[in-house]
Amino acid sequence: MMIVRYVIGEIRNLEYYLKVYVTFESNAGNYFFGIITGIVYHHFNSKGKKLESIKNFNAMFLLAVAFFIKMNVLTVCLPRDHLAEPSLLLALYGSLLKASWGILACFLMFYLTFRPRNLFASFLQHPVMLVLSKLSYSSYVVQYTVVYAIYRNVTTPLMSNAFTTILFTSAVVFITLFVGFLLHVCIEVPVMTLCKPLLAPQRTNFPVSPTEEHLIENKAKTDIKDLSK
Q1: What is the value of pTM for the model shown?
Q2: For residue 103, what are the CA distances in angstroms to 32, 124, 163?
Q3: Residue 7: CB partners within 8 Å, gap ≥ 6?
Q4: Higher per-residue pLDDT: 117 or 136
Q5: Which of 40, 102, 161, 203 is geometrically suited to a Cys-Cys bond with 30, CB 3.0 to 4.6 A?
Q6: Which residues contact 214 (CB under 8 A, 6 or more apart)?
Q7: In degrees rounded to 5, what are phi and psi of residue 83?
């Protein structure tokens, strides 16, 4: 965690991060829409609902597509040089642009998931994909730490050529995947195993009275007689 703090501190001092990334490319909003999508998906899945249960879903989906296209087309109107003073209009537009990505992804996931005979949903729900998604998230969490650790340990000048780029890229990818795997196996899996019994819904077994048991037996006998006829 100490390394992550230094990573964030250095990145926030970069001119590109302050002028471009914070305004248009940070993806914190997409996490919010992802959480909303997951909650709605589990609600629909548990209730057995379909897209037909949502009124005017197709119209809302088309509006999300139009909003996404409009926000991205308006990027051509941005000034070439960023304003020296903070701009409220630019900040508002940047927030709407980031939200358009999350909104479109939300509606697209609903459309692809709840379609009948959907191969995309079957592919994402495959056990292999579930494991790979957890591993990829663990790798995403540690990527900045790995990049910073490699960067801090380089003390000699480097030649800017294709070999150096390939070497450092390969090192970052390999170490990131390895550390992400350790994070998943050593932390995520044990925590999930311990918390699963606590988060699972408790089932209460009520005792069956003699009267109810007698009624159940009579119902079963009646069903057998009907089938024999």
Answers
A1: 0.53
A2: 10, 20, 41
A3: 144, 145, 147, 148
A4: 136
A5: 102
A6: none
A7: -65, 145
- Rounded Cα gap, residues 176 and 50, in angstroms: 39
Scanning the structure block, which residue is given the tokens 């990505």? 101
Using one digit for the tens of pLDDT, what is the confidence trace for 34-91? 788 888 887 777 777 776 677 788 888 899 999 999 988 887 776 665 555 567 777 7
136, 3, 13, 75: CA torsion to nearest 10 = 10
Q: Token pair for residue 67?
A: 């909003």
Mean pLDDT of 8-26: 59
The label of the residue with tokens 């960067």 reads: 151
- C-alpha to C-alpha distances, 209 to 38, 214, 217, nearest whole angstrom: 41, 9, 13
DSSP state of 84: S
Cα separation, 71 vs 215, in Å, equals 65
Residue of 197, 148, 139, 138 lying closest to 168 (CA atoms): 148
Residue 2: pLDDT band with limits 50, 70, 90: very low
Q: Taking every pair of C-alpha atoms in the chain, what is the biggest distance, in angstroms? A: 91
Cα 162-164-166 angle, rounded to 5 deg: 65
